[in-house]
Amino acid sequence: MRIRLQWLVMLFCLSGAMLTPAPGLSAAATAEPPGAAITLEEVVVTATKTPAKRRDVPNAVLVLDAGEIRASGAKTIGELLANEPGIDWQTYGNYGGAAQEIHIRGMRGNGTQVLINGVPVNSPSLGVADVGRLPIDAVERIEIVKGSGSLLYGSGAMGGTVHILTKGPLRDKTDLKIGAGYGSRNTWRVAAESGMFVAGDFGYYLTAGRTETDGFRDNSDLRQTDASLTLVLDRKDGMNVRLYGDYLYRKYGMPGVEPPAGTGTYAIGTETFYNRDAATLLDRSGDKDGRIVLEVKGKPAPWLGYDFKGYYTDMENHNVQRYAFNGSGDENWVTNRVLGADGHVDVYPFEGAKLLLGGEYKNFIWKNDNFDLDTSGRRTVETAHDAGLHTKGVFTEAEYRPSRYWKMLAGFRHENHSAFGSGNLPLFGLIVNLGEATALKINHGKHFLAPTPNDLYWPADPYTRGNVDLKPETGWHTDVTVEQSLLNDKVFVSLSYFHWKVEDKIQWEPDSRGVWSPMNLADYRAEGLEAGVRIGPFDGLTLALGYTYLDAEEENRAYTRQDYGWPPFIAPDFRYAMVPRRAAMTPEHQFKGDLTYRSRFGLTATATVRYVSDRLVYNTETTTYPDTETVVHTLRSYWTADLKLEQRLGGHWVLTLAGRNLFDRDYDTRLGSFTDQTTLKSALCGYPGAGRSVFAGVAYEF
Length: 702
Known about the structure:
Helix content is 5%, strand content 58%. A hairpin with a 5-residue loop joins β27 and β28 (516-520).
């Protein structure tokens, strides 16, 4: 059912109602220190590339600071953001090396641009950022800006932008932390971090860690080493130079789906290919990621600021896959190297006005090395392919606040891509401040997603091939948000309505000969509502609630042979029609509740409950043959509960105990196909979510 006009009317009525303090909340309680209160004066950077008060940003914004990150007990960025308003965390089973994606407002993972210190971390070859591999130890703050971000951040920032800001040194303070922990499934992590200003304006911050786990399924182990280093020369507004680098190396198993009940162990000779627990026992993968970023920024005059950065990213994935039907397979290396630069100047010509002028350049080098494996797993035929892409963008954004009650914004980006040509991207925004603690925000912008090197240049073989004729996905994203602070910022409420549409969706489809290739197909769209409220702290208690309603729809390619009377392999130029259907893997309802208690004796306890409604999965993305019915499968709704306890002792020692999925709920995160080689029967099976687990840790902080 589509969202009707009365939803919008209700949204604006609620904004008026929020101007009255909620009953039952005593104003006397506001004498307590504000703690982690959210205010419209909160400063964010991501939405406009320059520091701006939340009340001056036309987008719906989520901000998580270091305290919230620590209290959550999350081990990954995905776990941390899961089920926040508008955010869906999707994984392939929650095992150690499982790919983890952030989906914002029903868009696919490649519709979310993820940045670390302003640099994209999305895989160029896939278009998706695997947030499971990003260490959380080094994170100081995360800003999530929902809505079209293509004006400032280019391709992929369609549903929103997740900006991860890492820790840096603080003046007059020495940071030193050493910690270790152990938990279920032989999981352990050791980590250390240190930072300070060592001489005048020069400082550093260093993090390093090692994680290992056997995983909760066969062949789901993980071995990971990560490190990051930040060097800072901080001369305040005059000039700030920051050099950041990180490195990640990990190896992990790929267990695939969980086979149906009754599946036996299957082996060829001495090699076991699958068992009841895992569909693949021989598939392995590994990643080597590194990046280095040099940023120079400053504000030499009250009317002028600048920010320039250059960066280099090297991402390599190694994958070994064996096929149970005869033991053959392939070994593959995909390497992505990105050399980029971007910068902007911000000019303040007169009071209330700002003009942003910027540009960006990226050069992509993609390489695919592959070995065919024979039935014994030995390398045979080697193939290698490489390609290069580059993209250039220039953008401008103008803001003007003629009075304290409203502000308008307009921007324009011109993008030039070596594969598909050029495009123009406008954006418009309006902010109305109905009072000191109320903001009405309207944002409308065009977005785009460029085809990836995998889409364009994947090597042709009997089963797959790339498509160099692809066009980018394009569309518009509109959102209306009301934000309200109450009781001296002890209560913060946010309500959003959004609507977006994407044309020329890029999707891998089989042709009439069964060869899979990407092509520009139908549209997909969504609209929905987001609601969030944060209450507290009151007597040490803080309650945060978030809810998302999503109505997402895609068009499926349904073939017809009415004019031919023949199947496609005889009449390949058959017609097809676009049939709307509920979008795959998009829950209609999501909820998250956090209750945090901070005592005067150093205890912090956080309980988190999440709910995800059912999701539809289609047997095929398209109906390949006219007489074939599309089979619909449903991933059942589920809820989970987590608890994190942290106790500080003696000012330096910190003890933690975290429990995940405390009630041991069974649920599946994805579906995939499995074929039993003894019966040759195929079935669609689930990637199971992780069951109950506990993790205890101890750390020393100085």
